[in-house]
Design brief:
Chain lengths: 351, 351, 351, 351
């Protein structure tokens, strides 16, 4: 209810602050008896980890996950799984000088207004560091989905004004932008470096594709598969929009164009993005999210302090000049969490 | 859990099928002691009602709401409010001829795959007729929000390829497209009529603005105000995307452009759309949703029947050639439901 | 959240007031494709209906249930089922004279304190008339449970100070007390009539037995099967306690007495009442609830009015001098709702 | 949904196994800005801690709580609070010899049937060690309730067949039984020692009293204050029944006896136990729970092994011969959690 829990049956609750002792997650509702591949969980965390390349923040966090419950002899027991990541490179002192200033684009002002108190150490609870816990939980969901034949893959399709011209899934992990087009990726990286060098940042778009989902997942009227995915995505820091299939382009299409004709061999097109009436069609699920440019920039910005007085601020510290590369695994994780939950909901319906 | 309930504290549960006896909603968690303006509720329903103009379906539904519980001497008692709209112009027989065909763009196929059984009478539960119940509940939420000084207004900004060039809130209810620009509205209407005449339909974009929300609404990490709005919007039939503030345009912006500078007088810009870190900033909340072109079109389309055999279909019946005008009150209703719920959540946090 | 919803997956929401237009329930999460026996639903309602015998209230309510959604050609579709019972013999005027008085033992005072407004017409929302909606929903759950081989039976074991000396399930529906011992039932009936004649009422105890539940139902740590049954039971008006298996007698037992020894043929005893660690053992589930004596009595009682002034009151109207006979089907209904929900939860866990 | 979460707004999720690395809890929905008294939290844990006296298990657990999130400079921030207790004296090896046997009275059999896999190390998740996490969370709730003027106190009223003859709240913490009557406590202790010496255990009854709750807390129809307390209590391991106010004695009372007359000075009696219609009356809330005799006993018992073969078992290890003393703080904790949640729910209703 207070917002740190996600999912109905396969359900996670995250906790922790960016510069507190730890971040982590409790997962409840995990299928019992499943052997978890802990190395695979760690690999997902490594993909989100800071300091992977010059394009990401230089904060040094090993993000080594510890699992304190819910496993017995390597298998899930059905009991809640606690996963914890101790913060090793927290530097709260770095924020001391701006503890009375609101960083533009950040939740500093809104958190203070909401709570009347604010953990100013690097955003506290509002920091995207919380997404490490999501990735850990999502890595568990991915393993359960893999057993169902479902795969989730996301990648950068646009960043710094550069668009991918092809979708080559094989190159995603081979370029620091996690883009699906190596040539575009190189150009994106140049733009990101450029932005960083002038104390600025860039935005982008991430696309996500899910394969192997059978028709029939999703609940009407409100807990539609796309509605739950939308909530999951918009809940990721810096995501400001989402579109499914043809998305916003549908505004200018006619029904005869947008409708996906059906044949005995399946849908002829996939303008729906794999979801009709909120329920999966069996076609690939496709959606895109927009990632705003990183709010933490070194360039000087106008702001106010907690007393309402005008001020200027330069957000120093260790920040990503483009959030896309590290947001890719978060998008995948949240997608996996939604899907695993809906598989269980569908099973419950028919039980 | 099965998807027909929305909200945490101010919570609605809808029921009913398009060509069954009735649609309706139970609202729980309503502030007690509030005098409800029943005429105002009916007015909202009238805005969503079919048959308002030549641009909407000609189904004749008075949509006269009956309230069967939760009111005493005109005031809310805090008990659940049941609102019911009996279907007066249901014509299930009209669907008899296509009961074995899947209408492209509709949930016919996905519902059958999900449930193994399908109420083929005009989409049954999947029909947008369910949104009448949302509008009824939303009308209650709006009255509660009005007491808090909050107003919600939505309007068509694009349809049939025509974009509004100005935002004039005064003209919205004075044109059948519910557009914010009279000149554009006239052009949109021409395109809609044109599409209809060739058995086709058009899509569009609706924008929504919320005024009077104080800073501090929304719950991290998952139940962010924007995340909950996104879920609410994508749960509306035909909505395929949502963006907040600068939205997808943020992909090509730099941080120094996108960040909204703060001054003692407030935010200088509103690229964030009134929400930072998932919590309201106090600025106007602004978002846009894309409405796909109506799936029900008279033009011939390829499809399959329930036995998997190829077929063609022309969706006759009474349909809107553009969904925007009638979707506007639904967007407003869902927005109001999310906000009223979050006001109560914020109060609970500090209680 | 506001309390009128029960269940996680198989979930009901009730609405309606005792002397308003109707009471009813929405059920969500019903297995699709199941043919419902509507006559059997009505039979359950008839068992709870007022006016069955001289031992129950003489209010005349046919309690004919109408189903307005979620069924198609006699089968469940998986969409929410709305069941409604219009109040036919509401007499709000009968309460006019006591609308400023708090009836002892009733929720008059607490509702006014809670809500600041009170529907004084026969208790309004607080009336046990709301339980008709539970029985209707429970009757659906019972049909689903029957397909799983599960049966739920409750009966009066004590009333007016008279205890049953045997458990004969065959006689329950053959005596107006719904007791499991005809001889005791006759004596109970005499005590009830006696109490009524002097303007008073009596309490009692209902026992419930569930057969056919496999081992493994229930969720640790909080949503234990017994914990959920306890909540369900205590949520029934007039129920003031519950005990499982040996119950309160366990206070004076030793571990060697209370522990149910296991053999290859099963448990030797059933002091646990069929639940260990919150999870069903496969043995019969047995529990008892205490029903307080009816609060509405004709004898004069001391009370206060809404202004805090002392007063006396005689609760006239049509009331049951002993609630047990009509509470029996309510106990069964709530039990069935809990079990059907937990079957689905167990399926979801392993999905 | 999977059962390890409790509460609607003030909500806890527990995790951990008896002989795994740790047990703990995440609390979400905590009022921000409150200075927490960490020593007071530890004191509550010390009351539940093993090894307090010869009457309790000799397992040595310091139960020193660590708080890893949700606090900033000693105050709550409104973010989730993670409290963790590392298991220091886990001895999983002690259970190796009985890992294929089902201990009578324990959840060994039911967990295996439920999950298909079992953490046999001292009951794993089913162990009452999980209640340490509840006490930690309850201690936070108590501090919030104290600010509201609410106090919760529980005590043993019966054990080993000995009943307290007076209620002296001052002596509770001065005797190892946590009884409300020193003389009875001494006799209880003798009976407990006696039972232990013959390899057996005893049951008992705990009473709980809550003072300072204003009228109006609780939600009809299902989330009644007593219904939620009942669920909370029955969710505590070994609790097999609960009764409010007059409780089961109401079965033999008449309405004129049981109804609590009202006067301008308040209720004359409190047979209702402070709750009417599921909502607090403002009188003291009073209920009793029965605690079954400890299932772990040294005396030989008949059982079966995981292959269904007959066997005998003596549960060695370190166990409490009577659970009452250590269950008292658990009863208080769960009561506090329910109340704090309902205070927030009431605030949300009127917001």
């Amino acid at each position: 209810m207070a917002g740190s829990t996600f999912g109905e049956i396969f359900r996670i609750s995250t906790f922790g602050e960016s510069h507190g002792p730890a971040v982590g997650v409790v997962i409840d509702g995990v299928t019992p008896g499943v052997e978890l591949d802990l190395a695979a969980i760690q690999r997902e965390l490594d993909r989100r980890r800071p300091g992977q390349s010059s394009l990401t923040t230089q904060r040094k966090e090993p993000d080594a996950v510890e699992i304190l419950s819910g496993l017995f002899e390597g298998r899930t027991t059905g009991a809640p799984i606690l996963m914890i990541l101790y913060n090793k490179d927290a530097r709260p002192g770095a924020y001391e000088s701006i503890k009375e200033l609101f960083r533009p684009g950040h939740a500093d002002y809104t958190y203070l207004k909401k709570y009347g108190i604010r953990d100013w150490r690097g955003g506290g609870r509002a920091s995207a560091r919380e997404t490490a816990a999501r990735v850990a939980a999502g890595a568990v969901a991915r393993q359960l989905l893999a057993r169902r034949g479902v795969s989730v893959i996301a990648y950068t399709v646009r960043a710094g004004g550069v668009a991918c011209r092809q979708i080559d899934l094989d190159v995603i992990e081979r370029n620091p932008m996690r883009a699906c087009d190596l040539e575009a990726a190189a150009e994106m990286a140049r733009r990101v470096e450029e932005a960083r060098s002038r104390g600025d940042s860039v935005g982008g778009i991430i696309e996500c594709r899910v394969r192997g989902v059978p028709p029939g997942l999703g609940e009407p009227a409100f807990d539609r598969l796309d509605a739950d995915l939308a909530k999951a995505m918009i809940s990721i820091p810096a995501v400001k929009g989402i579109e499914f299939g043809a998305g916003f382009a549908a505004a200018d299409m006619s029904g005869s164009q947008h409708n996906d004709a059906m044949t005995p061999e399946g849908f002829v097109t996939n303008h729906a993005g794999g979801i009709l009436g909120g329920i999966s069609t069996g076609a690939e699920i496709v959606f895109r999210v927009v990632i705003k440019p990183t709010s933490s920039i070194a360039a000087e910005q106008r702001t106010v302090d907690v007393h309402g007085r005008p001020a200027t601020i330069r957000t120093k510290g260790r920040h990503d000049p483009c959030l896309c590369p590290r947001a890719v695994p978060v998008v995948e994780a949240m997608t996996a969490l939604v899907l695993e939950d809906h598989f269980k909901r569908q099973a419950a319906l028919h039980a």
